[in-house]
Amino acid sequence: MSLVTLEHVGVALGGRDVLTDVSFTMDMGEIVTIVGPNGSGKSTMLRVIVGAVQPTKGRVIRKEGLKIGYVPQKLHIDPTLPMTVRRFLSLPRRVDNDAADMALTETGAGHLYDRQMVDLSGGQFQRVLLARALLAKPDLLILDEATQGLDQPGSADFYDHIDRVRREFGCAVLMVSHELHVVMAASDRVICLNGHVCCQGEPEHVASAPEYRALFGTGTHGALALYRHEHSHTHDTCDDAVCDHDHSHDHGSAP
User: b/e per residue, 143-179, with b = 16+ CB within 10 A?
Assistant: First the structure.
C-alpha cells in the first residue's frame, strides 16, 4: 500500500478553487518534489496530505499509522529567549539524550548540541529543524520551502543530507521548493502544479515538457546534469499531453 494517495482532490478556499482534480500517490523510499509558481496551491496540497486542510472534493487515503515529519519554510524564535538546540529538540515532548544525539548526527548538526538557537546560521537552523522532524522516525518527511534564504551551495548541501537521510531511514521525502535546478535534480519524481497537475514524471522529462516550460522557461533544464543523483528505481515518465488549462491566472494559495 502507498503511504498516501490523493484521488481527484479539489480544495476551495475563500470562494476560490485552489486545487482542482489533483491525483497523487507517494510510495515508501522515493523523493518527490512539487514545483509551481507562486499561488499554485503547493502549500495547500501539503496541508491536505497532513490533514490540516480537508478537501472539498475527492478523498485522501493514508496508510494506517502513517508517521509524518515536517520541516517548515521558516520558524521564528524570540531572540531574547535563551534556548539551546538540545532543549529545542525536547519541545513539545521530551526526548532522551541518545535520540537527540542520533538525530543531530544524522543531519550533520551534532556539534550544535549546546549552541543557542538564536546563534545558528540559516543552514544550521534548518539542519536542527530536520533533526527534530526525524525524532518521530517518520515514514514520510515533508519539507515546505525548507532552504529558503540559503545560498546555492548551502541548499545543495542540505539536499545531500536529505538524500542520505532517505537512504538511511528508508522514509519517503516530499519537497516543495522554488530552487528548481537543485531540487529537481535531487528528486526521483517531479510534479508540476498550477492549481491542477500540469505534468509529472522523472526530472528530465518534466523539464522538457511543454507544460513545465510554459511556466518556468527553459533555463532549468541545462543545470540538471550538475546535481543529478542516480537512483536504482524508475518511475513513469511525464505525460506530454498538452495541458488544457490556462496558466495565465493565479489560482491562489492557502492563507
Answer: bbbbbeebeeebbbbbbebbeebbeebebbbbbbbeb
Strand partners, 199: 192
Q: What pLDDT digit, counting tens, does each position of 3-33 carry?
A: 999 999 999 999 899 999 999 999 999 999 9
Residue 201 has pLDDT above 50, yes or no: yes
How sure is the predictor about 2, in pLDDT bands with cuts at 50, 70 and 90? very high
Q: Does 186 have pLDDT greater than 60?
A: yes
Q: What is the CATH number of the domain that holds 230?
A: 3.40.50.300
Taking residue 65's Cβ as centre, other Cβ atoms within 10 Å add up to 6
Total structural domains in the chain?
2
Helix extents (H) in the chain: 42-50, 85-89, 97-106, 122-134, 152-169, 180-183, 203-208, 210-216, 224-227
Do 133 and 144 reside in the same domain of the chain? no
Name the grid cell of 228.
543529478
CA-wise closest residue to 101 among 116, 77, 85: 85
58 Cβ contact list (under 8 Å, min separation 6): 6, 7, 8, 9, 10, 21, 22, 23
Distant-in-sequence, close-in-space partners of 83: CB < 8 Å, separation ≥ 6:
77, 116, 117, 118
Q: Residue 236 and residue 191: Cα distance in Å, rounded? A: 12
Q: pLDDT for 49-94, tens place per residue?
A: 999 999 999 999 999 999 999 988 778 888 888 999 999 999 888 9
First to last CA, the chain: 32
**pTM given for the model:** 0.78
Residue range of the domain that includes 19: 1-67+139-255
Between CA 238 and CA 120 the distance in angstroms is 40
